[in-house]
């Protein structure tokens, strides 16, 4: 097991309104737990020291789960303005708490595990890379890790811009992709059909 990396904060982004699901998808039963619990468990098990859940639309419902899982809660009161508001909330928390890097993960990707997160942490490569992205199947995306040198750029994001959008604005940022074999890493849950399909896939993968 990797030693704890005291200056890295793992932030689970869980503020969305689950519009296409019609109810809080992160708290619906999924493979014996919930998507929120799976994400927090993966974050808590990896080598990052701090674990934070950024909540929003369903903050009151999520708060007991976040506490029970031993994570800290950061409430994003501006969640309806888009994903960038949650990224900013996570980065501001990491900066205020003195972390040197933030690892961002979204809570609706059920194939993300502790081993994925630890591989991403190892990918910092002695902190030479300012950012590390997950890559599989010719794509890159979440989870991703950003050194504090990226914090000012991340705080510039607006609306539905995700963290990766900063590379379009700041093309000179040193970035490294950490490659994984299983492209299911990027599968996410948006609809009831997604929930049923991915729950079956997760059960079959055990």
TrEMBL record:
Q: Which Pfam families match?
A: NTP_transf_3 (PF12804)
Q: Which domain of life is it from?
A: Bacteria
Extract the Gene3D superfamilies matched here.
Answer: Spore Coat Polysaccharide Biosynthesis Protein SpsA, Chain A (3.90.550.10)
User: Where's the MobA-like NTP transferase domain?
Assistant: 10-171
Could you tell me one molecular function GO term of this UniProt entry? nucleotidyltransferase activity
Q: Which InterPro entries match?
A: MobA-like_NTP_Trfase, Nucleotide-diphossugar_trans
The name under which this protein is listed is Nucleotidyltransferase family protein
């Amino acid at each position: 097991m990797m030693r704890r990396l005291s200056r890295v904060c793992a932030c689970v982004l869980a503020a969305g309104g689950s519009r296409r699901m019609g109810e809080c998808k992160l708290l619906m039963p999924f493979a014996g737990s919930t998507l929120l619990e799976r994400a927090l468990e993966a974050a808590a098990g990896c080598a990052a020291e701090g674990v934070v859940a950024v909540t929003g639309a369903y903050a009151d419902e999520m708060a007991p789960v976040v506490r029970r899982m031993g994570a800290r809660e950061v409430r994003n009161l501006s969640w309806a303005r888009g994903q960038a508001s949650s990224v900013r909330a996570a980065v501001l928390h990491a900066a205020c708490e003195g972390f040197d890097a933030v690892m961002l993960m979204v809570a609706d990707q059920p194939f993300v595990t502790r081993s994925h997160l630890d591989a991403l942490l190892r990918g910092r490569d002695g902190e030479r890379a300012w950012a590390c992205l997950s890559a599989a199947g010719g794509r890159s995306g979440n989870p991703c890790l950003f050194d504090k040198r990226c914090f000012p750029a991340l705080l510039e994001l607006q609306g539905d811009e995700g963290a990766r959008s900063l590379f379009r604005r700041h093309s000179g940022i040193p970035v490294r992709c950490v490659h994984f074999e299983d492209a299911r890493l990027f599968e996410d849950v948006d609809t009831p059909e997604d929930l049923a399909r991915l729950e079956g896939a997760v059960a079959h993968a055990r």
